[in-house]
Amino acid sequence: MGIFSFFSRGNKEGEKNKEDLNKGLEKTKTSLFSRLGKALMGKSTVDADVLDELEEILVGADVGVDTTLRIIQRIEERVKRDKYLGTSELDRILREEIIALLTENNTRDIDSFELPEGLTTPYVILVVGVNGVGKTTTIGKLAYQFHKAGKKVVLGAGDTFRAAAVSQLKIWGERAGVPVIEHGMNTDPAAVAFDAVKQGVEMGADVVIIDTAGRLQTKVNLMNELGKIKRVIERFIPNENHHEVLLVLDGSMGQNAFVQATEFTKATQVNALAITKLDGTAKGGVVIGISDQFKIPVKYIGVGEGMEQLQVFNRVEFVDSLFKKD
Asked: For the chain, which domains are there?
């Protein structure tokens, strides 16, 4: 990891990242504080009624029922331990307990658009997700960020079943300044993956990012297709630890994002998450719930349409932004 965090670099870029994050979470934050303010009106201590109201607020922000109950239990324990807990402290306590919860789960903060150390071959990222979640856009922005960080990047247009997917990825490749390997529509995705990884190896690329079919197929078909792609990749890169399956979810879909995460994690070995479109929703709590319930690292979040508004996920900065009073 780098010496400076993605958000605290002490320069204009770090400040811009914080500003984008704050703006991206504004709708969720406004909704939370508005509802929390009404729930606490006339209350001086955190009692059972306040906790009931808080439970409704967190569920309404799509934190998820299971995660919400864990948060409420933590706050109840704080109330018992501290004896007296004023309502004025609730936002601080919420922040501390959510950060602690995420810290205990299988999440880790990354400082920048980094790759595993010591790679001798390209790092391969297979990107999965249903149509409409921002999958191809996320790939383009990810390519841009890696390229900006000085990495050699190759893209593979493996979603060959959707008319716009290949052309859309080519446009993003041009914007990001990276090559795109494509065979057109209705061709074999594994053949695209083969050529993309081959190109990556030959040019000494750092990372190869492969788009895959943008639909939630039956589990058998999805596993077969991704299995074929993985076997092709392993002809060049035998170490499967070099591979990442990145699931892209639309944060504005709330509970439906949980459903998609459940189905994809049953069908394939997802080991990283990207959650998009947080700027257009008051359901930003979905990041907390998904991170907690699936124990899969949330690596990236989308907080705007700009090329640089795909950010690495930092749980402390995220929760700080969500609960910091203006």
From this structure: 12-104 (1.20.120.140), 123-314 (3.40.50.300)
